[in-house]
Every structure is written in C-alpha cells, then in structure tokens.
Amino acid sequence: MSARPAFLPVWTIAMAATVSAFVLHLAFRGKTVQYGYELGRARQEQSRLREVKRVLELEAASYKTPERVEIVARTLLGMEPPRPDRIVTISESPSAEPLGALTLGAEAPAPASPDEGRR
C-alpha cells in the first residue's frame, strides 16, 4: 500500500513536466516561424535594394557620357561652343619659363598688423 500514495505526486510532476515541455516547444516553434517570415522579408528587401543600386549605377554611368554632359551644358547651364574669335592658342616655346619658376624666389608680403591677415 505504500507504493500507491507515492504514485499520484510522481505522476502529477511527470504530467506537469510534459505539458511544460510541450508549451515550450510550441513557443520555440512559433518564434522559428516568425523569424522565418522576417528573414524572407529581409531577403526580399535586399533583392529590391540590389535592383535599385543597379539602376542607380546605370544612371550614374549615363551622366558621365559626353553626350549627357553636352546636353546638360546646353540646356541647364545655357552654354554654347566658343566663337572662333574667343579661342586663344598658346604655343609652348623653349625660352618660356614654367609658371612654377616665376614664383619660386618671390615671397608674399607680410601683413602690416595681425588683424590684417585674418580678413
């Protein structure tokens, strides 16, 4: 008879442990499904952003073409090719000094007062 009274508490503890394990399993399974959906949405967003990046790279490349630069210069900036009288040809002669040689020996004048240099 002593075995009978010990059965009920052991059985109750075993059932409580089984139910707890099942509830915990369901909670983990729910989280797994939720994370799966989030991962799917993130991959879809990643795919969309890759496509946007590809389109923007193509658009940026098209802005660098000479035809595009000319269109922007003519329409938005109002630029035109220079007239022939505005073109100055600079010939390079061996006696001409390079620009850097003109300023090597010269020093800039010092400001008269410390406040003058700040303006």
Written description of the protein model:
The chain contains three helices and no strands. With 119 residues, the protein is mainly α. The longest helix has 61 residues. About 5% of the residues have low confidence.
Largest sheet descriptor = none
Strand content: under 5%
Structural class: mainly alpha
Helix content: 55-70%
User: Given the C-alpha coordinates, what overall shape results?
Assistant: rod-shaped
Low-confidence stretches: 101-106
H and E order? HHH
Total of helices: 3
Radius of gyration equals 41 Å
Number of strands: 0
Query: How confident is the prediction overall: mean pLDDT?
Result: 83
Distance between the termini: 107 Å
Which SSEs are present, and which pair or pack?
Layout: H1 3-63, H2 66-75, H3 99-103
Summarize the model shown:
With 119 residues, the chain is mainly alpha-helical. The protein has helices at 3-63, 66-75, 99-103.
List key phrases describing it.
single chain, 119 residues, mainly alpha, 3 helices, rod-shaped
